[in-house]
## 1
Amino acid sequence: MVANLTDQWTAGREAVRVASFTHTYAALPEQFFARVDPTPVSAPRLIAVNRPLAAELDFDLGTHAAEVLAAIFAGNAVPAGATPIAMAYAGHQFGHFVPQLGDGRAILLGELRDRTGQLRDVQLKGAGRTPFSRDGDGRAALGPVLREYIVGEAMHALGIPATRALAAALTGDRIPRQGMVPGAVLTRVAASHVRVGTFQYFAARGERDSVQRLADYVIDRHYPQARAAERPYLALLEAVAARQALLIARWMHVGFIHGVMNTDNMAVSGETIDFGPCAFMDSYDPAAVFSSIDRRGRYAYGNQPAAAEWNLARLAETLLPFIDLTPERAVELATEVIAGFSTRVDRHWLAGMRAKLGLLTASADDVELIGALLDLMHGSQADFTNTFRLLCDASSAPAAAATLRTHFANPAAYDDWAGRWRARLAQEGDEPGSRAAAMRRVNPAYIPRNHRIEQAIVAAVERDDFSVFDALLEVLSRPYVESESAAPYAAPPLPAERVTKTFCGT
Ligand code: AMP
Ligand code: MG
């Protein structure tokens, strides 16, 4: 019965109107994308819809039957006004350039203007093969779809720019991964899907006009202020670098490890994107790596600023011809931007870390003070999230301080550090209660811990039980507000629960 849905919408029936799509990307020249419809699946079943996000996008969920929405979010029914396309891009994967990647399993339906006036892409991920699929099946497995849904929503609630999930649907088809697993489609919403690798795609082909066209598109869509600059394309590079620096610093503040920061997985909008094998670390370790494919730790937690800088240098290379007519001058100007990137990250990082420690003012010793705490945490394998959360209480309550010191292998060393911290806090004028409250607004109690994500995935994949996923999403929607019912979600994994490897699942 469900299979007939496809025929009903693609033939005969009129397409369902759910939103007002526009198509600025599909209006670009034909070499930017391939026009391709999603491939129907056997039994669409909706497993999650994001009602608040749908409301932001004026995406009408209310007036359609569940099976109609399932058909749309599984790719069986293309909604009215959508123009499905797969975007072309290239990318450096772990340092190796691949001249053609592209959306091999993602299909952009179009853009929607949200309530703040921003255009947002709506894309089906896992919706079937495209001209960019290479050997891939064009599909996504349920596990990675749920992971991306959870992490995107968690990032959003943490206040960190990220693509978000509008819906997830089961396809009813099993797909070969590590064994046969349920297939699913994620409907993803992004500020745009233009990546560093999109620029590289055209640059590598010597399509200068296309690079410029893309740069103009990105300026119009994301950085209109760059248009008025003396050198618009240099201003574009600066603007991308500025947003990326803030993004990476924000990742560092919450212990996020993207896991696969290839140039095709870095959006020029400054949103976190394509978090396949991503993870939040439990115990603090600057060398933490979870991704099974990152064997050398290229994208380890502490390497992320350098990885982003490397990616930005690749973006800069594509923009050189438009920065200055004299190649040497262009290189000089672009290099200045790239060279300033790590300072930008450090500045944001330091500002955020001060806030995490409850410091309102800056002092020359702060970097050392923060570094000393991190060293102690590293030596004690202290839980990153919980240490900072306990510091919120410890800043005002002696009892909490007593709990916190037991998290350190050498409590006396912590006492010594805490003495310096308190002395530093004492120099500030704020009242301890309001300081602790301010610290709780920047130090989350709940992050999407790997073992919790794993539990949600196992329940869904093995038992068709989505209640674990739903409960986790609920907790992660308020990461800064502690509640008794959510308390278990703050606990680090037991040894048997520890997840040491994450997979792309592609
Ligand atoms: P990712 O690892 O998801 O960032 O994907 C890297 C590249 O592989 C992109 O071009 C994807 O579109 C493509 N890809 C990943 N998985 C599949 C799949 N199952 N079928 C087709 N293409 C895929
Ligand atoms: Mg990708």
Note: The longest helix spans residues 232-254.
## 2
Amino acid sequence: MTDQMQCITLAQRPFGAPKDEDFALETRDIPTPGEGEVLVRVHYMSLDPYMRGRMNDAKSYAEPVPIGGVMEGGGCGEVIASNDPSYAPGDMVFGMFGWATHGIQPGNMLRKLDPRVPITTSLGVLGMPGFTGWYGLTELGKPKKGETLVVAAATGPVGSMVGQIAKARGLRTVAIAGGADKCALATEKFGFDAAIDHRAHSDASSLRKELAAACPDGIDIYFENVGGKVFEAVLPLMNRFGRIPVCGMISGYNATEMPEGPDRFPMFWSTVLIKHLTASGFIISNHFDLYPAFLQEVVPMISSGQVAYLEDIAEGIENAPRTFMGLLEGKNVGKQIVKLI
Ligand code: NDP
């Protein structure tokens, strides 16, 4: 076993879209696990949109990554040394190891993986993103049979879970995705009733026309993943007593200043008021008490084929920064993962 590992650190804070110079690839000694700690060789690491927020020195729900610090993130791999009696070398686990080939975590921060499913599912469909879609839809969206749901980033791990659970509960599901290929995936692989390419529309009103045609009974649940033009297109089409689980706003993650238009806020809020809408923000890390309920419902749906999933696997830790830049631009097709071994 080599005694060196590789990791990606934050070299400088990005201004706008991240660039190569914002990251550094470093070689370090593999650390030795202390009391109660476990050393893991990471096989696959996850890339997620929230990591863009961690690169900013801004007040948020989590601390930023310090300059020179290892980029934050989850990964799955094999225990190679353990000072926790619950784990033995060879066990496959999930943990927050950062963008790194090896990582140490206290045993109580790890999750053992189910050997019956591929380990990559712990990063996507059965991991944090899939759980996010399930939680936001079922707990906050409160879906009812016969209603209409709209979700953007619809072929990603959050959006595809939202669409498939909504479909299983008898809703009409409308996807918004970037490009013809992703729209075809949305309907053919994930069973959406209709799919709309947001990139084919330069403004919200043109997108709204196509959406209105796809949602003849209006929209009861808008699962908010992207904000911006899509949100503006959707809002006037919401039905009375509609629900908006506010999950993410990726269209603004690389923004260098607040988008224009505080003068539009009264229009947004008057729609919320007049239509009795409920908008509920959430951060999934505060809701893991429901994770077992999610697994109980979704694992059988994956085994039976009722829930499909798609993974986009890049190779090599050195390619993680470029792959992450692509994720923020929609270049990923499915859950973005990086294979390290
Ligand atoms: P995805 O794998 O779906 O990747 C992001 C996708 O966003 C891209 O592929 C692209 O899809 C879409 N996108 C990028 N820019 C734009 C844009 N300007 N307008 C519209 N769509 C755009 O991501 P996830 O499924 O992992 O995450 C989806 C959302 O959920 C994100 O906003 C994320 O931050 C949020 N999230 C929130 C959590 C919470 O706790 N609240 C937890 C986990 C995720 P396309 O090409 O189809 O447009």
Note: The chain has two domains: 4-124+310-339, 128-284.
